[in-house]
Design a protein that fits this description.
384 residues; Jelly Rolls; hydrolase; alpha+beta; binds 2-acetamido-2-deoxy-beta-D-glucopyranose; metalloendopeptidase activity
């Protein structure tokens, strides 16, 4: 735990720093990489564990977009990846240059490697969006907090975006429920949509149109399948990924104690009410993270509340681990993340008409344990 604390406290000061040569953090056509291909190469002796983070980040991006990453130091334009002080990148492609991108030990993480790569691809910070003042209070700005007039707003503001900074006393969400959501090192579902729209990645020319369910969309990386929101899988995202739990009209508890726990409830009753639980085993592969779901009769409302959080690493952001009760109707959007139980934010009852209601536990699987309660409120089913 000491090591973790040290890394995190250093990361606060150093992480995500964005190298800005001009003050304008523009997103314009000129900054896109031609042929959807970002060239890169590492400096001699660049640590292998950091190369692994970029490999995973590139693989993540390649499997969610039409982008390619080519190791080519002879290309006219390329990203020169180095281990310098702090983590930063130029914004967008710098024509005719070998632009630098730095990853440093205190901020070395898959999510940061991906964040900096997104900068190199032309994506600005979440707090640089022109609509950010609707969602954030930003009292003192450094260059990382400037609004960028050229940001595209093709996706809604998401507190869970990997491009949004953590909360400080001078940069915090208008809605305090998102106090621990800002600064996420998970990749927001909308982050990949933004990138796909920016680079024109889509499946419009693909002969087969898939009817993707539950917020999914046809994957530009492989148009024969859909990209699914958390908790769903299968070609059209109509399969539940995780363990199913049944809700009743009474509150039921579920205690999740890690991969060797035998406390998992798998009740089959009542009809058409399912609950689905799994837990992430690898923080760096959040896309594979296990999910929790259940189903209730049509027209009903599902309620979930967290009642215990144990062993989670709790600080100013739930970047390392946490629980997401995905109650927002838009399954693509990040709902408030919790990992700390020392205030009144973590144990709110969340209601949703989404069926199933998805719960995500993410982060280290072995230590953290949590308990939640769930039930459904019946809808008006009698009239027909
Ligand atoms: C475009 O990128 C693809 C994949 O990296 C590559 O095979 C192809 O040669 C590139 N085309 C041009 C014109 O650079
Ligand atoms: C949310 O964060 C802000 C800024 O750090 C703080 O002033 C506020 O008290 C927090 N709200 C809650 C409910 O924790
Ligand atoms: C939520 O947790 C706080 C702090 O432990 C507690 O004071 C409060 O009563 C809890 N609220 C509910 C609704 O359980
Ligand atoms: C059920 O019907 C009542 C009376 O028509 C209405 O007030 C209520 O909003 C309905 N509830 C739902 C969940 O549709």
């Amino acid at each position: 735990m000491k090591v973790l604390l040290l890394l995190v406290s250093l990361a606060v000061g150093l992480c995500f720093g964005n190298q800005v040569r001009s003050k304008r953090q523009a997103l314009s056509d000129a900054l896109r990489w031609p042929n959807n291909t970002m060239n890169y190469y590492y400096e001699d002796g660049f640590p292998l564990e950091m190369q692994a983070m970029f490999r995973d980040a590139f693989n993540y991006l390649k499997s969610h977009t039409c982008l390619n990453f080519v190791n080519n130091k002879d290309a006219e334009n390329a990203v020169y990846i180095r281990n310098r002080v702090s983590c930063w990148s130029a914004l967008g492609m710098r024509s005719g240059e070998h632009q630098e991108l730095s990853l440093d030990y205190p901020c070395a993480h898959f999510g940061v490697a991906l964040h900096e790569t997104m900068h190199a691809l032309g994506i600005a910070h979440g707090q640089a969006r022109t609509d950010r003042d609707k969602y954030l209070i930003v009292e003192a700005e450094d260059h990382n907090d400037y609004i960028n007039e050229d940001t595209t707003l093709s996706v809604p503001f998401d507190y869970g975006s990997v491009m949004l900074y953590w909360r400080t006393e001078r940069r915090f969400p208008k809605d305090p429920e998102y106090n621990y959501t800002m600064g996420s090192l998970r990749v927001g579902f909308y982050d990949m949509i933004l990138l796909n729209e920016y680079y024109g990645c889509n499946c419009e020319k693909h002969p087969v149109k898939l009817d993707c369910k539950n917020g999914g969309y046809q994957n530009p990386a492989n148009c024969d399948e859909c990209t699914c929101t958390d908790g769903f899988k299968g070609q059209t995202c109509d399969e539940l990924d995780g363990h199913i739990l049944s809700a009743s009209t009474e509150w039921r508890p579920l205690y999740y104690g890690g991969p060797y726990s035998k406390t998992l409830e798998k009740s089959m009753a009542p009809k058409n009410v399912f609950f689905h639980v799994t837990v992430s085993t690898d923080y760096l592969q959040e896309v594979l993270s296990k999910k929790t779901l259940f189903q209730a009769p049509e027209g009903s409302t599902i309620e979930v509340r967290t009642t215990r959080l144990e062993g989670f690493f709790c600080h100013f952001t739930c970047d390392w681990n946490g629980v997401e009760l995905k109650y927002l109707t838009d399954r693509r959007m990040t709902s408030p993340l919790t990992c700390c139980d020392d205030d009144n934010l973590w144990n709110k009852t969340r209601s949703s008409t989404n069926n199933p209601f998805v719960i995500v536990k993410y982060g280290e699987d072995k230590g953290p344990r949590f308990q939640f309660e769930y039930r459904y409120l019946p809808g008006n089913l009698t009239s027909s």
